[in-house]
Amino acid sequence: MNRRKKIKQLLEAHAKKANAKLAPKSSKPKYVSKADRLKLAAEQDLEPTPSAD
Question: How far apart (Å, rounded) are the C-alpha atoms in residues 15 and 22?
Answer without folding.
Answer: 11
